[in-house]
Amino acid sequence: DAGITQSPRHKVTETGTPVTLRCHQTENHRYMYWYRQDPGHGLRLIHYSYGVKDTDKGEVSDGYSVSRSKTEDFLLTLESATSSQTSVYFCAISESSAGGSNQPQHFGDGTRLSIL
Amino acid sequence: GNSVTQMEGPVTLSEEAFLTINCTYTATGYPSLFWYVQYPGEGLQLLLKATKADDKGSNKGFEATYRKETTSFHLEKGSVQVSDSAVYFCALSDRGGATNKLIFGTGTLLAVQP
Questions:
Q1: Which residues in chain A touch residue B99, judged by CB atoms under 8 angstroms apart?
Q2: A93 to chain B: which residues are within 8 Å by CB?
Q3: By the CB < 8 Å criterion, does A25 face chain B?
């Protein structure tokens, strides 16, 4: 299994509070991603990173920010959590593409976040 | 834009039955295609992949063939087991896209009964 650790695994918090989720990898992969999983939507990309301090938005980035100060860590922050952000959050990593062939992503075990 | 459409579940089968989960895609160019599996309480695991037309990905008895003419990547298994019960996701990635970003289908829940 790819060395990906998400923390915390579960969190319950209140509307309006800031929340930070952490993803830590031991694979030295270049790319890291944050997804949210909701019933009927599959997984949707929030933000991704293509290197230290290099990040970009995904399809559902509103209300979220990210930071990557080291290759191994990718943080997802909800500045002021809302109930619509209750979800399961997954981090993923992948190596650089080679020869035009896409590399697969490898996923962490997820963080279940409940915002009351 | 690119998209993936999967058959809706749940799919309920008896042990040793034949499995097909349909997946079709819309994409410009020639995407790479993936099937991921998610067991309860866990993250997604790569099941198989195919990177060009007519490629067949296979793993653990599961197979899927990249059909460009029908824009499909259906997942099949000849004889399912109770342990195959999980959610299956079809996904695509822009071939040659440097960031390996994935677009997922909504997932298909498979329940296998003994």
A1: 31, 48, 50, 56
A2: none
A3: no
Cα→Cα distances A71→A29, A94, A114, B110, Å: 8, 12, 28, 37
Neighbours of B9 (CB within 10 A): 15
Query: Distance between CA B98 and CA B67 in Å, rounded?
Result: 23
8 Å CB contact between A88 and A111: yes
SS3 A110: coil
Q: Is B47 left (phi over 0), alpha (psi -120 to 50) or beta?
A: alpha
CA-based nearest residue to A103, from B46, B110, B37: B46
- Which residues of chain A have a CB within 8 Å of the CB of B32? 101-102
- Interface residue A34 vs chain B (CB under 8 A): no
pLDDT by residue for chain B (114 residues), tens digit each? 889 999 888 999 999 999 999 999 999 878 899 999 999 888 999 999 998 899 999 999 999 999 999 999 999 999 999 999 999 999 998 765 667 788 999 999 999 999
